[in-house]
Amino acid sequence: MSPQPDPVRRRPAPYPVLVVGSGAREHALVWALAQSPSVSEVWAAPGNPGIATLAAIAEIPVTDVEATAEWADVHGIGLVVVGPEGPLAMGLADLLHARGIPVFGPSRAAAELEWSKAFAKDFMRRHGIPTAPYGVFTEMDAALDFIRDARDPLVIKADGLAAGKGVIICGTAAEAESAVRSVLIERAFQGAGDRVVIEGFLEGEELSVIAVVDGERIAILPPARDYKRLRDGNQGPNTGGMGSFAPVGDLDPNLLARVREMVLEPAVAGLRAEGRLYRGALYAGLMLTSGGPMALEFNCRFGDPETQAILPLLDLDLAELLLSCAEGRLASEHIAAHPAAAVCVVLAAHGYPERPRGGDVIEGIEDAWRSGVLVFHAGTALSAGQLVANGGRVLSVVGTGSDLDEATARAYAAADMIQFNGKQMRRDIAMSLAPQPA
């Protein structure tokens, strides 16, 4: 496959921007883009009630990539920013490029780095990116043989997209066998589990590093940490993320340079060499081991909830940064950021992550806003004029401050102002700086 062509049409600033998605990450993107001097108007498809207070809404499902591309063309959109992974896996960026519309988000071929964990592991091996030893299996017997010969603990991953939940940590061979059976035989993740990746467990501290990429050059955003387990102390089931903070201030000063050299640059160069030109956000989920940084996974878009903590720290025109990547003209490896900290606390619905309950009335958001925090909507809806929970992760509450302690105090004070029946939240975000992997 040949690299993506350059967009053939560029609108002069200010230009309208379309954000694709409906979660808290997309709300944060809309919030930041609405402040960009280069932007005349922000649209969102399909958005949510919080996004609708800042952007005009196009009622298009994220799964209808053809309709999204046509709508963007008809409305003269100058930049499309794709939030979730699903539309990228369905080829939305390819359709937009075919119409000459600049898009911040990689092609379907480049996004295989996320939508297939088996591809990602093989890709890392091909291009010398440090990662855990692994095997890829479609048959139960072969997977069991691998488990019996491997050293505990192990990590079991469904190959395809599973909404951030297709990863199971197994302390014993028996647990690993059960997890593989749930993926391959019981179809716990449906089509995402046609193949299973089994890899060695890495010990260390987790770190999320997100870079913006123009196909060749990269610029690294402030590093963040997220918390995947549902409950304090990294207990409970795996989730899409219960909170995050940025920047991570206890890092070796040379660490990001090593991540750039060992992980990000080989990934971008490797994708380009394979005809998968990458323009968008490249998320590296890392484990900081005693032997150096190791790649756990790649995501091909901004992380959630890391984005909610990172964007308030940036001191730049976000639209122009993303457009420069979309057009292959990223001018600087430096990202301007405020000397501050941000903490994101996720409020989740009763029953999340297994069976989240909808319909619970949400109160107190206005009080939280007035306290000086940001409240980004995720799983919310309007019902009979009231805001109600309508998804697993309902809201992201983001406090900022001159340091991590101040940001944490503000985030939790505001999170306590917001009430709905069955509200779940962790109370140790940014207080335990190095959560164990989930």
Please, could you describe this protein's structure?
The protein has 438 residues and is of the alpha+beta class. It folds into four domains: 15-107, 3-Layer(aba) Sandwich (Rossmann fold), CATH 3.40.50.20; 133-200, ATP-grasp fold, A domain (Dna Ligase, domain 1); 205-326, 2-Layer Sandwich (D-amino Acid Aminotransferase, Chain A, domain 1); 341-417, Glycinamide Ribonucleotide Synthetase, Chain A, domain 4 (Alpha-Beta Complex), CATH 3.90.600.10. Helix content is 28%, strand content 26%. It contains 13 helices and 22 strands. Helix 7 runs antiparallel to helix 8 (173-184). The two termini are 35 Å apart. Mean pLDDT is 93; it is low at 434-438.
Report low-confidence residues grouped into runs of 5 or more. 434-438
CATH architectural name of the largest domain: 2-Layer Sandwich
Calculate Rg over CA atoms.
21 Å
Helix/strand-derived class?
A: alpha+beta
Amino- and carboxy-terminal Cα gap: 35 Å
CATH superfamily of the largest domain: ATP-grasp fold, B domain
Q: Name the overall outline.
A: globular
Strand order of the largest sheet: 3-2-1-4-5
Number of helices: 13
Reported for the largest beta sheet, the result is: 5 strands, parallel
CATH topology name of the largest domain, in short, is D-amino Acid Aminotransferase, Chain A, domain 1
Counted up, domains total 4
The tally of beta strands, per DSSP, is 22
Helix coverage percent: 25-40%
Could you tell me the mean pLDDT? 93
The CATH C-level class name of the largest domain: Alpha Beta
Q: How much strand? A: 25-35%
